[in-house]
UniProtKB/TrEMBL annotation:
One of its GO terms (biological process) is cellular response to oxidative stress. It comes from the Eukaryota. This is DUF1760-domain-containing protein. It comes from Cryomyces minteri. One of its GO terms (cellular component) is cytoplasm.
Length: 671
């Protein structure tokens, strides 16, 4: 009854507004929220007390959503916005955990941060003839954590509040709001699907764009759709119109906000099952080179077509991309932002920046611009859709991107290259692959630029944790290397890699490059050379192998014969991929008899002392290591059972290569 309900009994004018606020704070329960909702229909009351109710109502979500919407519609919008942005910054995402147990996570082939287990709820069957005890299980949305509900509800309030404000400088309110939203959003690490969808709806409401909604799918949102009700006018509104340039300023603020949101979302994506970001590299390669798809292996295209978590990723990015088009974000502006080498301004999420003075001083996110630009370019290629993309070549555009995002300090610490987020690396490599497939390599300004570009790419191919991205980086490196018209420049890069690179897997790649150059320059049935032929490749002469021989066949006498067997064993394991690549290449040189004379393979074997300084130490070391791996051997205890099995397998592969090369040397000596 009304007499027993303190929220009705103390209604002004029975008490003043401050006293009534205190009564609400001490007497509000979830059961009394409907009463408060009715009370808040009084616009005068809500204008005076609404903004002070927000901190009381936010912890009671989702039950308090109607009351919060009442405040957004009828409260003083200027005061309420301040409280809403303050509440956004206070949301604590630290203790939010995915509502997925370990078994569910292991059963999911590709687990996304936005995934939730499906729950069922019993619903009584009241049909004719149904027993009272009969129930029917229906799918119920999973419960969202309170911080996620708070974020969604507060953004819904802001969608109502901002259009209500009538002021000469609405961009000042918008700047404050967007900073608070982004600061809160960037603190989250789970439930990114729900949070990002809320952001997209919020920006759509502010921008006035009414793009048709995407087809509905199962939603985990627990908010009911509210019937749109009339909002009260701004009690502090002025008759004057917004200042000139305000529309442009607000649109630029939203453009910047969208790029920063996309950056945060893409960097939050997990790379489980080696699916970096949206796997743009792999999906592009499958489209343009279907012959390279591994038989009976699930393609990335099929994964994105059938895996719900990956569909969600693609859908979210598609929504943001569509929103960016509605906001008229030009691809040329994105590219200009991406290749700009000036350091990106770093703000403090805990401190609010002053509102901008002009649209020109509002920066886009560099990484967000990269993701958005890549999304547009790859979409046009994957779905054969027409685009209005700016000119994009390996040189200079992709080189500038690589130096900006990957190689900003190559000379200081090459070991950090490859540690960048997988989604970022995927986007960068995808743009490079697309340029190569479109035959847009361009020309480097100088050889140093060409070498630096290849060094960065090759380091990515050696260091990035993702096997898929390592492959794509290697493919792009090899393709761009082969594109240079000067064989001397190509040889110089191969030599530099073999001589100076600290990563053995990259040295193995360099062996593959010289192998490819040698095969192409020396076909089994070449055309007869002309006496004045000035186009003869350096790879068609002994010079290339002679130049590389000290690094192809290094002296291993000391490296593999150290007093400590364990130390020598570690050296072999670290360098095994390079040794095997060299042995296989050398076997090709020995058995391809048409190479012997033009490349002087006999002279190479003698001058490089491959038998004494390279092959011999490998043979002797293999015998020592086999003995050490036997039961009771020096290496057996250190390696353990699994390590011994792996070590023996490696030695069998090495011995097989050595045996084949030794046989090839014997045949060479008989010529």
């Amino acid at each position: 009854m009304a007499d027993d309900n303190p929220l009705l009994k103390a209604l002004p004018p029975a008490t003043d507004y401050l006293t009534y606020l205190t009564i609400i704070e001490y007497n509000l329960t979830p059961e009394r929220l409907p009463t408060l909702h009715d009370v808040l229909q009084d616009a005068t009351l809500t204008t005076n007390i609404g903004w002070d109710l927000i901190h009381i109502l936010v912890p009671l979500l989702p039950d308090s959503e109607q009351c919060l919407q009442d405040i957004a519609r009828l409260g003083n919008p200027r005061e309420v916005i301040l409280k809403v942005t303050e509440s956004l910054r206070l949301i604590d995402f630290d203790n939010v955990e995915e509502d997925v147990n370990e078994e569910d996570a292991q059963a999911t082939s590709v687990h996304s941060d936005a995934s939730h287990p499906v729950k069922t709820a019993p619903v009584l069957s009241h049909g004719e003839g149904a027993s009272e005890s009969v129930t029917q299980a229906v799918e119920a949305p999973p419960e969202l954590p309170l911080p996620v509900l708070q974020f969604i509800a507060l953004l819904s309030m802001l969608s109502v509040l901002h259009p209500r404000i009538k002021t000469k400088y609405p961009s000042r309110f918008l700047s404050t709001t967007l900073q608070a939203v982004l600061a809160s959003y960037s603190e989250a690490s789970t439930h990114m699907e729900e949070l990002t969808s809320a952001v997209v709806k919020f920006v759509k409401a502010l921008s006035g764009n009414r793009r048709p909604q995407l087809p509905p799918r199962r939603s985990s949102s627990q908010f009911n759709v509210l019937v749109k009700q009339q909002s009260a006018p701004d009690p502090e509104a002025h008759a004057e119109s917004p200042a000139p340039g305000e529309a442009k300023m607000q649109n630029r603020l939203l453009q910047s906000f969208v790029t920063h949101t996309l950056e945060q979302y893409m960097l939050s994506l997990s790379s489980s099952q080696d699916v970096p970001g949206l796997a743009w590299c792999s999906r592009l390669q499958e489209k343009v080179h279907p012959e390279r798809t591994v038989p009976r292996k699930v393609s990335f295209a099929d994964m994105f077509a059938n895996e719900e978590n990956l569909q969600i990723r693609s859908s979210i990015v598609g929504q943001v991309e569509a929103l960016a088009r509605d906001l008229a974000i030009d691809s040329r502006d994105l590219l200009a932002c991406i290749i700009d080498r000036k350091p990106e301004p770093v703000g403090d999420s805990n401190r609010e920046d002053e509102p901008p003075i002009s649209a020109e001083e509002i920066p886009l996110s560099k990484s967000g611009s990269l993701f958005l630009f890549a999304a547009r370019e790859i979409r046009d290629s994957l779905y054969d859709s027409p685009g209005d993309a700016p000119d994009f070549s390996i040189f200079p555009e992709h080189d500038q991107i690589l130096q900006t995002f990957i190689n900003s300090s190559l000379a200081s610490d090459v070991g950090t290259i490859g540690s960048e987020p997988a989604a970022l690396v995927d986007a960068i490599l995808a743009l490079g692959l697309l340029a190569v497939e479109n035959d847009q390599v361009g020309e480097p300004a100088e050889n140093e630029t060409f070498t630096r570009y290849l060094q960065t790419l090759s380091l990515l191919s050696a260091n990035t944790p993702s096997p898929t991205l390592r492959y794509h980086a290697h493919y792009l490196t090899s393709t761009v290397l082969r594109s240079h018209p000067s064989d001397n420049v190509r040889l110089a890069f191969i030599r530099d890699t073999l001589e100076h690179c600290p990563f053995e897997n990259l040295k193995a790649s360099a062996v593959g490059w010289i192998k490819g150059e040698t095969i192409e320059a020396n076909p089994p049935n070449p055309h007869p050379p002309q006496a004045d032929d000035e186009d003869q490749s350096v790879f068609n002469t002994p010079l290339a192998l002679t130049t590389l021989s000290p690094f192809l066949f290094p002296d291993l006498t000391h490296d593999l014969s150290a007093p400590s067997l364990a130390e020598s064993w570690m050296t072999l394991k670290l360098n095994l991929s390079f040794y095997l690549a060299t042995l296989n290449f050398y076997y090709l040189l020995l058995t391809a008899t048409h190479l012997h004379e033009p490349l002087d393979i006999g002279g190479l074997h003698t001058s490089a002392d491959t038998g004494g300084s390279f092959l011999g130490p490998l043979v002797q070391a293999s015998k020592r290591f086999r003995a050490g791996l036997q039961h009771g051997g020096e290496l057996a205890d250190e390696e353990g059972e699994e390590g011994v099995r792996a070590g023996v397998a490696d030695l069998e592969i090495l011995d097989d290569a050595l045996e084949r090369v030794t046989g090839g040397v014997a045949a060479l000596n008989q010529e």
